[in-house]
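Hey L., structure's done. Input below.
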Amino acid sequence: MGRLQISELDNTDLAKRNFFVRPPEPPEEVLMTDPTNAIFIGRTKIFHVPFYWTFQKTTNPHIAIVGITGSGKSYFVKTFLTRASFVWGTNSFIIDWAGEYKDWVKQTGGKVISLGRGSSINLLDVAGMKPNDRIKQVMRTLDILTDISRYPEQRRLTELAIEKSYVNSKFKLNSKLQVDGLGKTLMPPTLKDVQKILEDMSEAGSYEFPAELENAIYRLRQFTREGEDFFAQQSTIDLEKLTRAGMVDLDLSGLPDETFRGLAALSMLQFLKEKMREEGWSSTKGLKLLVVLDEAWKIAKDDNSDAVMIVREGRKYQFGLIVASQNPTDISEAIFSNVGTTFILRVKFERYLDYLQSTLNFSNYMRAEIAKLGVGQAAVNMAFQTTADFSETFMLDKIEGEEPMQEFFLDMESVLTREEMSMEGVARSTSFEKDELKKKLRAYGMNDEQSDEVVALFSKKGRRMEIASFVVLLTRYGIARGNIGNFLKELGLEDSTVVNVFSKADELEMELGDDDISEHIINSQAPSAKGGQEGI
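Output:
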């Protein structure tokens, strides 16, 4: 029998042993909150404690979500909005860049506004604001989306013409009162009125810098041309009701380019911000409105954007902003440093991990755990109202949503070398979430019917597909090779692996000839790589 021997140790040596150290998770009383006044997200990875999110414990209700394509961002957003509606009766407004959420919003009984497909927003609509304030917002928007700030004279001319258009429409520039002497609501001017004022100046021929004037007119024409005058017509949307309309999706996929989408997004953020300011604080519990900004890099990255302003002051008006992106560097540091909660989903690139770690200041242990995240798993960073003596970044085993998450797998054995096949830790498949795949396919030009066909093929093959076959399939649907390459890189594949994938896809294309790739996929032998199970 062994003997127990007592020995002397100094404090320094004893401290190194750390017999009892709490793992990096907040205590149960922080994670578990009254379920009637909080949103259930999932269970923690270490102790499996139910995590209920509430803005009442954080510095503000704003949220940042980062994760690569297919990691489950949109799935999380849908879950979060659904539960916020049940718990607090929260209204939601989704600025939907690629039309990803429109079908889901329709299914929930919400309202879809499709700009470019019948709906329009008058950029000069004041929506209860003073015209002077609206003019400043419009000019700030043009500064962000165009290079007009580099041409001070053109900027000055545009601003003066907008001001004159309001005066011509009988508006008082420094008054919220929008009625004439008989009490009738005034009709705001449009960008076409602004353009006409500048054109009249040009025809008069008295302006000393005619080239600057012509260039100012040219800038406006991109928004007033027939068929592209989405912001130069009277609004078809009742802006006064947007914050109380339940679930609203502003579908921007029908607009021609990023400038138009950015113009719509910034305008709506400005209208929503002013509306919430007007309504002020309410003594009722919960959040009145959640605004979702997904993959809007030009809006979320600029420090002068209204997204940054909302993050800085939204708490006192009881509305929150959710900013989501696959690239964390596309989100302004001013947003990251001010949001109350950050959800980090699957992140593959070291430069993104560097940025997140330096911005959120989590440990190397947490960085290693984040690098291993699968689809639907997440790390959470919370800025608590009070000083915390525990880790503010912790891991969730998975996001537990309203319905099972469908995870699709691309098997990569055919593009791995023998050496790679024999190495431990080399992934033999990569995965992504179904709705994220459909979002990408739509962004690349596929219609709903075509993206549904791709999804159906995955389902017929047990949610798995050989990666070269997948590339051939997308190619035959007309997706450009560059877009396919970007998609594979966004899934975390290295450049060398992507090259191998295209090489195998070219070989398969030659082998198939005129044969149907869909039939080839259905009749091919089931992949041998081990896959995950249907998650969350």
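Confidence is low (pLDDT under 50) at residues 527-536. The chain is about 40% helix and 15% strand.

-- N.
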